[in-house]
Every structure is written in structure tokens, then in C-alpha cells.
Amino acid sequence: MLFMDDIKRLADDIYRERIIRARRTSSAEKLMEGPRLFDAVCERMKAGIRAQAPDADEDEVQQLLLQHIRRLRNVEEHAVYTPLECSDDRR
């Protein structure tokens, strides 16, 4: 049980440090973190695509990445946007 307590304490310390660091981060830095994270995730996704399709050239990898991002967006937005029913008098 002591081992689990040590892990919990370490996890709490890491979480606390992340909160302190986030509070010290300027608004401009926080704003720029989004594009940086997106770029990093895209690079990881491209690495995964290359592992699955080792013969793909850079253009194919880019196309597969875009397809994957579109699929993710469609899943994320599913049922968020629904067609609006219009009466005849609005047309």
C-alpha cells in the first residue's frame, strides 16, 4: 500500500506543478500553445501514417493526414449542426 501512496503523492505533486506553471504563463504564450500542440499532434499522426503506409510519399502522407483530420472533425461535430427547417414564407 505504501507504493500506491507514493504514486498518488507523486501524481499530486506533478499536477500541482502543472497548475502553478499554467498560472505563470502569459496570455500570449497560452494563445500560441494551441497551434504548437496542433503541429505536434499532426507530426505524430504523420508518423503513424508512415508506419501504416511505409511506401507513401510526402504528398500521400499529407492527403491521408487531411482525410483523418476531416474524419475526426465529422465525428466531433456529429449532430452538432442540424439542418434548420424553414417555412415557405422565409424563402
Description of the molecule:
This protein is an all-alpha fold and 91 residues long. The chain has one domain. Helices cover 76% and strands 0% of the residues. The chain is built from three helices and no strands. α2 crosses α3. The chain is extended.
Supply database-style keywords:
91 residues; mainly alpha; 3 helices; extended
Q: What is the strand and helix layout of this fold?
A:
Blueprint (H helix, E strand, L loop, with lengths): L1 H23 L2 H26 L5 H20 L14
Helix pairs in contact: 2-3
Report the β-strand fraction as a percent range.
Answer: under 5%
What is the helix/strand order?
HHH
Oligomer: single chain
Residue windows where pLDDT falls under 50 for at least 5 positions = none
Specify the overall morphology. Answer: extended
**Could you give a short account of the major beta sheet?**
none
Number of domains: 1
State the distance separating the first and last CA atoms: 69 Å
Average pLDDT: 90
Given the helix and strand composition, which structural class is it? mainly alpha
- State Rg: 22 Å
Tally of separate helices: 3
The number of distinct β-strands equals: 0
Report helical residue fraction. Answer: over 70%
Would you kindly provide a brief summary of this structure?
The chain is mostly helical. It has helices spanning 2-24, 27-52, 58-77.
